[in-house]
User: Fold this.
Amino acid sequence: MKCLFTLLVLCCTLSLTAQADCIAGTLVDKESGKPLPFATVQFFFNGKFLHGMTTDLDGKFLACGLPKRKQVDLQIDYTGCATLKVVGVLVGDKSVELEIERGGVLLEEIVVKEFKKPLIEQDNTTSGQRMTSEDVRNLPKRNVSQISGIAAGASPAPANRMASMRGSRANAKQYYVDGVSVGATAGSQMPSPDPEVNEQYNGIAENGFKSTKEEQISTISTDVDRAAYANVRRFLNSGQLPPADAVRSEEMINYFKYEDPNPETKDDVALRTEFMTCPWNPQNQLLRVSAKTMPIATADIPASNLVFLLDVSGSMSSTNKLPLVKESLKLLTQSLRQEDKVSIVVYAGAAGLVLPATSDPGAIIAALDELNSGGSTAGGAGIELAYKTAAENFIEGGNNRIILATDGDFNVGVRNQDALVKLIEQKRETGIYLTVLGFGTGNYQEGTMQLLADKGNGNHGYIDSPAEARKVLVEEFGGTLYTVAKDVKLQLEFNEKAIASYRLIGYENRLLNTEDFDDDTKDAAEMGAGHSVTVLYELIPARGFKKADAMADLRLRFKPNTGGPSQKISEPVATDYTPEEMISNDLLWSAAVAEFAMLLRGSEHKGEATWTHCLEMAKKAQGEDANGYRAEMIGLIKTAQEIDGEARR
Assistant:
């Protein structure tokens, strides 16, 4: 059977009212009279873009700061409708009514050979049930969230929790009784769910010891992500220990700044090695390897072409999500220069360009202020549009980057990890980098976001407060948002006469094969300006350790961001003994963070580690701590100790 399908565009009515320098409007479906939320509305004057926003849940929008008593042009985009362009709307005039004419899009011919409705529709994430007030009165339940539990795909609400809906989250749904929006309980708001509810973390199989006789060489892609520490802090501050897979040792260690020396030139990377007796296994040694790029003053960074790709779906409505996203990006906007430009792309059920590229901080902040959350999450469509926008404004030799802000809960269109990773891998060769910033609790999809950042030649951070936003986006702008070294790989070839076996601490998802080190087609991590990467190894010495000149050969390979062939650095790791009083704060602090991570994970390799020992070591290594980040971790160790003690009672 042959079927010819035509997609009809909705016929809509747009009513506009205006006062002074503002235009307010409501977009509704002409046939049903229902409001149309999340439509993109853009304003133009003499062909120049002025302002952009999306309609709210009631189909309403308000634009102010328009030229008084001037005629402006509107462009309205809505999923399923052809773009509507309205010319000559007078600012400050009386209300105007506009219609979107019916239109059609002719699709390809489709041959349907056989169709059978499946017993289970695994991709259908929505369900619902309508009930009259009479039906409700006949039920033995009165609480709305409990009543919702009788619908297919919904789970009844347990005590102090919201009902769970397939394809949605507790803060992304609304209840209506006889057409009136109501809350789940009378006169009170339900508490937020525990942080780990519906959160997703990719599993971590912790590295074990490897014999140097069997596997002499260790090769990794360096990691500059720091999201895990802020996420762990969020759990501890909420009064609970984090899930083991949320604790990434390398990200916690690299959250902190270290006093490593700068390289000699801006295109170089400096290496440093030091070791001491392992604090949690005194019969072993602990080796610290660091690599650092040259810091660059913000004024010396090439012009930036930034695209803010913002998730405005229903799951982003809570205060620690979209409102925090807006506040965070305002901090970044205020630190940008005249030569930098920003575009804003948003996505919910569909993706749209809210703000074309501009260097006007006022326009950027105004566009951020207009954003509202609602709808499902079509992350794939947003990523496609963001890369398209970045490419259209590409700066040769500049800093071209997409900043994705989301909870990672993609549930429409391209949404599984493999498909999203494939999409990102296709885009990374364009010279456009990707920074992924995670927000919120309850449905934070850490595994997906880390993979996207890794495959998109970028980095991943977690923002749990304005202070963290300032650290990541302002204080560490160069390191976070400007890449100076690409495909950075580190390799250690251990001397089996000095080292019997070794264990890499962390980096479980960054392991490479030995041959990958010299393979320039093999993707690896990027390092930003002024970044310092720390790698720790726990070593079991061989009998000849003290007699050996070197315990290993250290090699680093990277591609300068300015172009040219890969650079390779090689140096021996000496076995020279360092007296205890000469051990650097950098080595001691990184050991304290590693021990903290092992205790949080309940690691089988924690040896003699205890909360008290970890706390003492951290206090000893705190140093100057100008920003108080180390003092904060000392407080978190105490908090974790208290939570763990209560759990054991």
Notes: The first helix runs from residue 133 to 137. The longest strand covers residues 483-494.
